[in-house]
C-alpha cells in the first residue's frame, strides 16, 4: 500500500456560494463521507489547509488580482468578476488555505513523506486566469503547485492532466507559452459547454506549441469514446513528454448522473481513468502524482467516486 | 449595423500600372485575396483577385511555373490588363445585411467600399462578416449554449428570457432559427455562466423541450422539392 496523503480541512466548507449554486460545501462533505465510510482514513496521511507565503501564488496570479480578491472579501462583496463566482467573507481565506494546502501536499511528496495524494479542496481552480476569477474558481491550485515544483524543487517536466468535463481555460492560458508544463484536457466540446475554449486546434503558442493538447468530446458520448480518445491522444503525448511529476485536475462532472454536462461516463470509467493516470505516474514519474479536486456536483455519486479514486492512489 | 463599422479601413491597394508580380507578392505577404486598384487620387478603378492572378499564371504542373522567364513575364504584365473594371462596390452606409445579400448574390469574397465620388474608403470581406458574427454569437466569451424548441407563437422568447433573468444569469446572445419544424422554432440563448443545471430544469418544468445538442442546427440547405 502506498503512503497516500489526503488534503482535507473543515475550513474548506466555509466558502459559502449561497442557496442557488452547485459548487457547495456539501460536495466536499460527500467526498469526505465516501472516504470515511469506506474505512480508508486510517490508511491516509491527513493534511490540513495551510497558509503559505503569498510569493507562491504570485508565481501564477498577478499581485493586483490577489489583493483585489482579498479586498472584495473584506468589503463583503458576494460576487466576484462574474455572477458565477458567488462568495462570502471567508472566500479569500478559504482559497488561500486550499492553495497553500496543495503546495504543502506536493512538498511532502518531494520530501519523501508521502507517495501520492488527493486534495479534496474548494474552491476549485482550473478556470481561474492570471487576473480573473471564472467558473467558481479563484486561485488556480494546480498551476500554483506546478510552479512551486519547478521553482522550489527544480522539477523540469510537469504534466497537468485535466479530466473535469469543462476545459481548464485558466491552466491552459497560464502555461500555453511554456514547454516545461504539458497541459492535457479532455472535456465536453466547447460549442456545447462552458467555458467555450479547448478546441483541438489550441495546441500551445511559440515555445509552448505542442505542449497543450485538447480532446473535445461531443455531447451524449460515454465510456467507450472517452477511453478511445485518452488512449489515442494522451498516452502518445506522455510517451513523448516523459513527465517527472503528474498533477491531475480531477472533476467528476462528466458522470452520467451529474447534470452539469452532457457527457455520460459510468462510475467504472472514472476508475479506469484514474488507473490510467496512476499507470502513467508509475511509468514516467516514479509514482509521483497529486490529484486536485475541480468539479463534480452530484452529491449522490461523489462518495463512491471519491472512494474509488482514493483507493486507486492507495494501491499505487 | 453599417458597413463602415466592420470594414477594413487600412486597405492594401495596387495601381493599374503595377505588375502582376507585385500584385501576387502583396497578396502573399498580407494573406489576402483581393486588391482594390486605385489611381493617384485614391479613386477606385478596378479590383484584382488571386483568381485573376492564377488565370494569368501557368499551371504549377507546367515546367516554366515560377521560372525566371515566367517571373519576367509577370513583371512585365500590368494589373490593368487583368483587373475587373467597375467592380461591384458597397457604400459606407450600406448595412451588414445589405453586404451579406450582395456578397451572396454576386458570389464574391470581398467588396470595396467607396464614397459618392468613388474614392476608396475600405474593403469588406467575408472574413470581416465572419468576425462580426463571431462577436454576435459571443464565441470566445465564457458561457454555455442552450437549444430550446418553442412553438411558433408570440411571447415564447419572453418566457425564456424571464426564466433566465430569474436565475440571475446574463445572456450573451440569443439566436433564433426559423424553419426548425413546420410549427416550431429553435431558440439558442448563450448564457454567460457555468451554472446551467437549474435553468435547464426550470425550462423543462415550464413545458419547453431542450433539443439534443447533437440535433442542433441554425441552418440547413433548402429542401429540394
Roughly how many Å apart are the termini of chain A? 7 Å
Low-confidence stretches of chain B: none
Helix content of chain B: 25-40%
Indicate the low-confidence ranges of chain A by residue numbers: none
Number of strands of chain B: 10
Quick one: CATH class of the largest domain in chain B? Answer: Alpha Beta
Q: Taking Cα atoms only, what radius of gyration of chain A do you get, to the nearest Å?
A: 17 Å
Number of domains of chain A: 1
- Cα radius of gyration of chain B in angstroms: 24 Å
The CATH architecture assignment of the largest domain in chain B turns out to be Roll
Largest interface: chains, residues each = A-B, 26 and 23 residues
Named CATH architecture of chain A: 3-Layer(aba) Sandwich
- Assembly state here? heterodimer
CATH superfamily of chain A: Histone deacetylase domain
CATH class designation of chain A: Alpha Beta
The overall average pLDDT of chain A, rounded, is 97
Helix percent band of chain A: 25-40%
Q: What's the total helix number of chain B?
A: 8
Task: Note the main sheet of chain B.
Answer: 5 strands, antiparallel
CATH fold descriptor of chain A: Arginase, Chain A
What's the arrangement of strands in the largest beta sheet of chain A?
A: 2-1-5-10-9-6-7-8
For this entry, give a set of tags:
heterodimer, A: alpha/beta, Arginase, Chain A, eight-stranded parallel sheet, 9 helices, 38% helix, B: 225 residues, alpha+beta, CBS-domain, VC0802-like, five-stranded antiparallel sheet, three-stranded antiparallel sheet, 8 helices, elongated
Amino acid at each position: 500500500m502506498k503512503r497516500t496523503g489526503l488534503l482535507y480541512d473543515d475550513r474548506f466548507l466555509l466558502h459559502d456560494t449561497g442557496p442557488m449554486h452547485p459548487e457547495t460545501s456539501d460536495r466536499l462533505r460527500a467526498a469526505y463521507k465516501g472516504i470515511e465510510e469506506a474505512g480508508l482514513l486510517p490508511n491516509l496521511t491527513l493534511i490540513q489547509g495551510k497558509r503559505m507565503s503569498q510569493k507562491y501564488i504570485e508565481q501564477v496570479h498577478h499581485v493586483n488580482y490577489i489583493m483585489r480578491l482579498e479586498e472584495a472579501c473584506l468589503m463583503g462583496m458576494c460576487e466576484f468578476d462574474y455572477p458565477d463566482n458567488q462568495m462570502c467573507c471567508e472566500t479569500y481565506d478559504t482559497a488561500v488555505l486550499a492553495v497553500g494546502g496543495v503546495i504543502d501536499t506536493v512538498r511532502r511528496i518531494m520530501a519523501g513523506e508521502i507517495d501520492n495524494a488527493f486534495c479534496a479542496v474548494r474552491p476549485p481552480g482550473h478556470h481561474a486566469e492570471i487576473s480573473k476569477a471564472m467558473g467558481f474558481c479563484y486561485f488556480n491550485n494546480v498551476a500554483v503547485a506546478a510552479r512551486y515544483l519547478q521553482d522550489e524543487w527544480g522539477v523540469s517536466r510537469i504534466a497537468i492532466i485535466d479530466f473535469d468535463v469543462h476545459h481548464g481555460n485558466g491552466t491552459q492560458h497560464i502555461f500555453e507559452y511554456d514547454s516545461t508544463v504539458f497541459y492535457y484536457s479532455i472535456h465536453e466540446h466547447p460549442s456545447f459547454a462552458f467555458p467555450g475554449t479547448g478546441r483541438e486546434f489550441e495546441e500551445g503558442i511559440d515555445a509552448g506549441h505542442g505542449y497543450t493538447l485538447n480532446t473535445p468530446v461531443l455531447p451524449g458520448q460515454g465510456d467507450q469514446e472517452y477511453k478511445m480518445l485518452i488512449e489515442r491522444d494522451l498516452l502518445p503525448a506522455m510517451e513523448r513528454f516523459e513527465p517527472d511529476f503528474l498533477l491531475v485536475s480531477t472533476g467528476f462532472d462528466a458522470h452520467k448522473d451529474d447534470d452539469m454536462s452532457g457527457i455520460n461516463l459510468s462510475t467504472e470509467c472514472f476508475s479506469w481513468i484514474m488507473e490510467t493516470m496512476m499507470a502513467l505516474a508509475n511509468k514516467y514519474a516514479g509514482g509521483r502524482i497529486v490529484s486536485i479536486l475541480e468539479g463534480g456536483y452530484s452529491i449522490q455519486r461523489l462518495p463512491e467516486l471519491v472512494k474509488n479514486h482514493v483507493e486507486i492512489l492507495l494501491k499505487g | 449595423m453599417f458597413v463602415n463599422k466592420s470594414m477594413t479601413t487600412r486597405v492594401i491597394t495596387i495601381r493599374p500600372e503595377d505588375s502582376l508580380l507585385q500584385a501576387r507578392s502583396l497578396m502573399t505577404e498580407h494573406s489576402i485575396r483581393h486588391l482594390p486598384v486605385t489611381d493617384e487620387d485614391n479613386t477606385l478603378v478596378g479590383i484584382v483577385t488571386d483568381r485573376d492572378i492564377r488565370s494569368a499564371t501557368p499551371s504549377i504542373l507546367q515546367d516554366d511555373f515560377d521560372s525566371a522567364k515566367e517571373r519576367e513575364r509577370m513583371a512585365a504584365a500590368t494589373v490593368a490588363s487583368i483587373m475587373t473594371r467597375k467592380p461591384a462596390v458597397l457604400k459606407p452606409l450600406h448595412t451588414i445585411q445589405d453586404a451579406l445579400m450582395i456578397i451572396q448574390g454576386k458570389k464574391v469574397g470581398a467588396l470595396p467600399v467607396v464614397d459618392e465620388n468613388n474614392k476608396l474608403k475600405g474593403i469588406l470581406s467575408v472574413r470581416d462578416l465572419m468576425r462580426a458574427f463571431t462577436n454576435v454569437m459571443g464565441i470566445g466569451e465564457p458561457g454555455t449554449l442552450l437549444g430550446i424548441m418553442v412553438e411558433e407563437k408570440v411571447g415564447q422568447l419572453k418566457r425564456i428570457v424571464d426564466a433566465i433573468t430569474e436565475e440571475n444569469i446574463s445572456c450573451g446572445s440569443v439566436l433564433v432559427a426559423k424553419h426548425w419544424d413546420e410549427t416550431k422554432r429553435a431558440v439558442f440563448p448563450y448564457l454567460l455562466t457555468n451554472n446551467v443545471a437549474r435553468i435547464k430544469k426550470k425550462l423543462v418544468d415550464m413545458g419547453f423541450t431542450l433539443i439534443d445538442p447533437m440535433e442542433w442546427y441554425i441552418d440547413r440547405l433548402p429542401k429540394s422539392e
